[in-house]
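debug: dumping io for the single-chain case to check the tokenizer round-trip. Nothing else runs in this session.
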Amino acid sequence: MLLAVAVALAGAGAVAVPGVGERVVATLRTGLCIVGGDVCRDADAVAAGLEPCLTRERSRRQDTTLDLAVVRLGGHGEWQVALRSDGQAVVTRLEDNEVGGTVGVGLAFSPVHVDAQATAALVARYRGGRAWRFPDPRSAGAFLERATHDASVHERRRPDVSWQAIGGHADGVASVAVADLTQAGVRASADAAIGLRSDGARRTLTIDAGIDDPRLFADLPGFPSGPGTRRSWVADVSWEHGAARELALRTAVADGDRVEEYSARLDLRDVGNRAAAARLLHPGASTPGDVGALVDRVKRHGVVERDSYAYGEQRRGFVAAGRLGIALGIAHQRVSSERRLIDAVAWVDGGPPQRRFDCLGV
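debug: decoded output
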């Protein structure tokens, strides 16, 4: 094979045909990928029942939280742009509103400038979202540029996907600060939600939960502590025209600048798959044996994927607060984040692992 490539490249150089060498190399790489049994082209992914990968996603979020006495009010707006391996792009608008209660206590030792405090919050949350699909990143970027400056732009265009969800969130922090130079403590949080997503004729019921592992933190001058480990779980059940179509389970672990996502999908149009999932779709009727049977069914007749992302985040804003039995304060932040696909592997119908070179590039 290498000899054939060398001869082809030599011939291309002799006749000075632009681009021939690159095309030959690309063809060779694709051929080696196919021989290796991986997913190499968009057509291979479609044949295996694999969906396009999310290759890159950027988001801009604005968070404003007001703690007034024992009441917490919050509003959060977020724009996302996601690029897919099939060349398409998706622009998403998320809106998040919350109301709840927060309490706190604090002590200050002015001679040595030590400030200790503990806070806890429990809020109810509503989240809505809309998404628009575009054939390429350029048209998505043009839409986003107009929509961020003029709300009527996205209000006039009918979304391709929309969803609403309700849920709750709880968090707690205990910390000590010295002379406004260093801060150390422990924090933890958890949230859960249930929602409904509409995508054409398809409806999807979604249940998700997430936790930030309890962790110790220490912020030193010039050395702020990084984010802790975030774990989340999502279960989706989709149906069209009254008939169940798909069961999807997803989990993700975010640790520092890396995110690992696992997903499993089972086609419920198959009689055997639907029977394996039936008990779990009726709360109270399932047993540990039913869960094991479903997991085995997914392994042998479903699609399991693992996607790895590099993640980065920047925050700008301010926090002003005071606490003495009750909480008084305001926080406002602008958060920009980006994640980029660095690895993707799929297992189809119990087969061996296949790298998603259609997403990663051959």
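debug: round-trip ok. Residues 37-360 form one domain.
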